[in-house]
Design goal:
Blueprint lengths: L1 E2 L3 H6 L5 E7 L8 H8 L6 E8 L2 E6 L10 E3 L13 H7 L16 E6 L2 E6 L8 E4 L3 E5 L2 H7 L2 E2 L2 H10 L13 E2 L5 E5 L2 E5 L13 H22 L4 E3 L4 H9 L2 H4 L3 E6 L4 H12 L4 E5 L8 H14 L6 H10 L8 E2 L23 H12 L12 H21 L4 H24 L6 E2 L5 H9 L2 H4 L3 H10 L1 H4 L9 H5 L3 H24 L8 H14 L15 H8 L7 H14 L9
Parallel strand pairs: 14-15, 14-17, 15-16, 17-18
Antiparallel strand pairs: 1-10, 2-4, 2-9, 3-4, 5-6, 6-7, 7-12, 8-9, 8-11, 12-13
GO biological process, one term: asparagine biosynthetic process
Protein name: Asparagine synthetase domain-containing protein
GO molecular function: asparagine synthase (glutamine-hydrolyzing) activity
Amino acid sequence: MNWRSDTQELLGEYMERGAILASFEKPGGVLGASEWRSALDLFSGSVDLNEKFSTGCQLICWNCIPSTSRDGWLNLVVGPRTASGDLSDDAVRAAATDSHSSVDAKILPPFAAFVATRGGASAVCDELGFRHLYRRAGDGWCGISTSARSLALIEETEFDLASIATNSLLGWQVSAQTWFQGVEKCGPGEFVTVADGALKYHRPTGTRVHHEFVDLDDATRRAAALLRDIVVAYVTEHPESVLQLTGGLDSRLLLAAMPREMRAQTDTMTLATTGSADAAIAAKLAAKYDMRHEVRSMDGLHALDPAAAFRLCLTAARRLESSVDPIAAAAVDFAELHSGGRPRIAGLGGEVARGFYYLSRPRDVPVTRRRVDRLAKWRMFTNESAPAEMFTEDFRFSRFNFALEAVYEAFLKTERGWFDAMDSFYLHQRVHRWAGTLASASAMERTIVNPMLDSEFLDIVNSVPPQYKARARFLSGILVELDDELARIPLESRPSPETYAEPTLRHRIELARVTSAKVSGKVIQRFSRANRPPDGGAVLAAKVVEYWRREPEALGGIVDCGLLDGGWIERMLQQEESISVAATAFIVNLIAARGMPISQMRD
């Protein structure tokens, strides 16, 4: 199953902002400066080539203006900052230069930078690895990039079956996986150097002070105070910022962290479709505090031409390195089309503090393969898994074992008990590889601040025993501490946060009813194999499939890769086989990874 494409043509098709930093063992290596230059015409002036970035290194950037690269460094995010303030240029440069100390833990994810060094160059990413960087050591060369696929283009490689199997069941990837053999995701806080065609990487050990758990009230007060400090500092420094508000708990925490007099001066926005309960609750909250509220709608997706819908999804897949659902991302891209570049405050990370994966009452038990198998079948491999029948018989029967082994190994590496390991897996795999991929795709376009990914906040969360995080008790308690009025307002399709924070008998009965309904829903979902499509996903997926049926060549010969069943593809094209949103998303990712140029598409 060979993966190969025309380097010049495909690099010219890239739609995302990004950069490659390559080093060669000797002049005239696998991809020299002359070959970089020959690709410039295909970029139509959107490429910056810096041959003198560092001794023996070449830097190529696409669709961005790397003004600082000529001074020997390149910031790979917009608006990097710590919990208390924006980072200066000197601080960015220093963070990517010192290989003997860990990257400053106070830098909020996402963060990454390239810096020229004596005889080579280096790169570093944030402690969570949220800003994705990729590395590859080739034959006489090596490279670091914001794009896995760009490194795969430099020298012929093959698909990584274990990674694709994991992606087809989880909807994202784990650990260092990418679609391509030999191309790996850089680890959290990793420091990477390239010089004379050789690549070295390590994660320096820091001097972090971790919080000790005293009691639930103490942890709640400290977490609430920290969130308030982070939010107030950011809005004070950036009054133009927008709060992304939903009907859920996480964004409400950030609203509660704002003093009431600050709320009226802060705008809010919600991504939604017409009739969304999420948008309705967000609008009521905004009105309550005299905040301007904007709904960025996905409704216009219905009017898209099928060819335009496919282009939108294929572009999203390339920006996301084929790693997560491109259809959900394309719907968001559509809604965000004219959103501008105002900095945003978002509630990502709250799920880490509420026992997201817990299937039973927390207790002291170890990680076992049986427990991982059960969690995978009931919780992980349900929402975004591509259906088995679309794959060849060989891959159909091997993909579950591939994916389960990858997940099991990630759990073992936590070296923690079962419930703590679930929290660690959610943060260091789900948040890291799913949410981090999405954040990385826009990291050079806009600033999005996630206060609950602050390292000190995560330290407090990690110190809290699982029994207090279960059923969102700890997280809801933080909201009560910040603003008890907001805590009494019901969530979307759920009771008020106060119900979760204060487990009275009446509240326990209400939560038992909610839990029972959720379990029933999971049982139905698992046995009916019905995926829950994202907002706008069903509309976009239907248009993409319509385009494939009209222009089958748009599939780009994907059957030849040996993963998909040819008969299933033929039945799908002849409208004899229905196709889910998850199956459509997987095929779009596969087309993007194989490298179909958009210029070959017909309208």
